[in-house]
Amino acid sequence: MRGGSSGMQGMHGSGAGVGVMHGGGMGPSGPGMRGHMGMMGSLELNDEQQAQLREFRSEYRQERFARMADMLDLRDEMHALMAQQRPDPEAVRELHGRMADLHSNMMADRVRMRNAIQHMLTDEQRQHMREHRQEGRGMPGDGGHRGQQQGHHGSQNR
Fold first, then answer.
1. Ramachandran region of residue 27, left (φ > 0), alpha (ψ -120 to 50) or beta?
2. What does the pLDDT read at residue 158?
3. What was the pLDDT predicted at 39?
4. Rounded to whole angstroms, what are the CA distances from 80 to 83, 85, 102, 133?
5. How many CB atoms are located within 10 Å of the residue 145 CB?
6. Residue 123's pLDDT is what?
């Protein structure tokens, strides 16, 4: 399994989008990666910003996929552990802690990419991004789930 450090740390101390938070999928086209080119295209990024965005996304995608693979491995371990007649509660707790740590790292990666995107934008582009967020469209890193955040923690019927 991967350690706690992220390849994203060199990104101007910044970051954007894992769709894992707030019910997002873990697949390669999960909500954290879909639907942002339209909005980003509307920001009229210059050539340098487009190159930076491609670099951010590439680095983020590589780290995200590696972490997702790690999470799937941990889930397999948990399923095997829970399939035992009498699972060891301490082993479950330890494994669950590792899963929580990994999820926390994924969230930090998401925030770093979101911050990196914000850092590279001009004031006008950031204002345009804020207007999109206020309209509920989200921004890269929000997974397009602004209105669903409340439901993730139990207020939504399951």
1. beta
2. 38
3. 64
4. 5, 11, 19, 41
5. 18
6. 93
Q: Which of 106, 133, 105, 107 is nearest to 118 (CA)?
A: 133
| Residue reference for tokens 């330890």 | 94
What whole-number distance in Å separates Cα of residue 107 and Cα of residue 103? 6
How many other CB atoms are there within 10 angstroms of residue 113's CB atom?
28
Buried residues in 121-139 as b, exposed as e (16+ CB within 10 A): beeebbebbeebeeeebbb
8 Å CB contact between 117 and 141: yes
Question: How far is Cα 69 from Cα 7, in angstroms, rounded to an integer?
Answer: 16
Grouped pLDDT means (10 residues each) for the chain, 158 residues: 41 35 37 50 84 91 94 98 98 98 95 92 89 68 45 41
Is the CATH code 1.20.120.1490 the one for domain 33-139?
yes
Other C-beta atoms within 10 Å of 10: how many?
A: 11
- In a 10 Å sphere around its CB, with 0-12 CB exposed, 13-18 middle and 19+ buried, how is residue 18 labelled? buried
Q: Are 18 and 56 in contact (CB under 8 A)?
A: no
